[in-house]
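Please check what follows.
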Amino acid sequence: MAETWVNSADSGAGHGDSGSAGDGDGDREADPAGGVGTDLHLELSGRGSLRSQLTHALRNAVRSGRLAPGTRLPPYRGLARDLGMSRNTVADAYAELVEEGWLSARQGSGTRVAPRAVPHPDQERGPQRRTRQQVPHDLMPSSPDAAAFPRTAWLTSARRAMTAAPHSAFGVADPRGRPELRAALAEYLARARGVRAEPERILICAGFAHGLRLLAAVRGGTLAVESYGLDFHRAAAEQSGMRTVPLTVDAYGARVGELPDTGAHTVLLTPAHQFPTGGPLHAERRAAVVDWARAGGGLIVEDDYDGEFRYDRRAVGAVQGVDPDRVVYIGSASKSLSPALRLGWMVLPGWLVDDVVAAKGVREMWSGVVDQLTLADFIACGAYDRHLRRMRRHYRHRRDLLVRTLAERAPHIRVSGIAAGLHAVLELPEGTEEAALRAARRQGLAMDGLRPYLHPDSAMTPRDGLVIGYGTPMDHAFGAALDALCLSLPDPEPASDQDPDPASDPASDAASDPDTSPGPGLEEAGPVPTG
């Protein structure tokens, strides 16, 4: 079998002559690329005439979907030269495929693959499992409103950054990231998140999971994690050679007092807003975990995944500001701007910088220079702050609408973790989580249950709940998504004569405090906050 790459420009074809198959020399196609031809990979079998081999190869390429509808084919004069065929052989093959409906030809526009008259092989397999993008209503957590991305301001920063960038910016990249972005982040993080950092201690990565893999490669050993958390973060650490052990989570965050019994020398926490249950790490526990790290040479990995989005209280500052030598601070643009940017940052203790840079490698292969330069300008010119202020109002409105809708239509469902972030947790009666998820699928609604977030080795009792991302839908779709959510929730449990009056229940007072009310799946905190 002969495999041939065709480029009509390389063969001297110049402007196309395939305006209408079999038209001879009268068809001249204007080529906007100035004579640059079209590459085409063909596999010609050794059987049959040259025309038969060519039609068979083209037909298979269209049938398989490799040549999509609308794809322009090379001019047949140039194709003939590349294949060592006569022009008439190629013209006849094109004409035959036009007659069969595989190709279409029009004077002045060349020969192209016709709209497919037969199903693509993937379409013949019947309905496939619905993907997130195909779901009519999307309340999956951890995603921002994609329609709110600041396109105009981002484009302005991109143009300005490209104009100002030195030529060296487009050579081999520094694995630490562009100095412009590291300088902008040092100023922003100190001002907005209380992070103590110099640009030399900041390393640009492709998001939190990438940063965690780099640390796992350097630290190894055992990583203590919150019992409730993202399974793919645990998997990232474990795939990089670490073992994960869970810490109990209660209304005050992770019980860091359990750390000495775990054998871990590294702990991963979400102190500003525990994911997914909500609520910040209590101040006494923040101090306690820093003391633990100082006393035994431990390292705290601080995941500040949505620290900018706090609605009812002052923002909770980063733990890194308490002791920069014992905390690795990791943030990203995934919630504040878009996960599509693949931009994150690590603020490292000075003693760890060289090892993490070495683990990343000498060549930057993860975060594009253009986006790094653009984000640097976006932060420096104040556009990032303006965007965050606008999005705080936007998401707070979303959160308030969610809470109000549930209060009106499902008052028996308790909502927690709503003082910050882009998600809320709905507590469900025992044994109803799976039924709620099935009902949601029938409504065309994507959402997460709470149980999959629990570490498989945790001693905590699993609880039923839903993790609802109110940042994900676009504005026009949010109301319909809330309707689908309400239709998916379980009915209220029958009233019992033994049930206390909610007005006299002390727990009802705690529920009004979005920071201290224990969410679903949480252990009672007890009187000693340090755990």
Observations:
- Confidence is low (pLDDT under 50) at residues 7-36, 117-132, 499-518.
- The two ends are 71 Å apart (CA to CA).
- The CA atoms of residues 402 and 482 lie 7 Å apart.
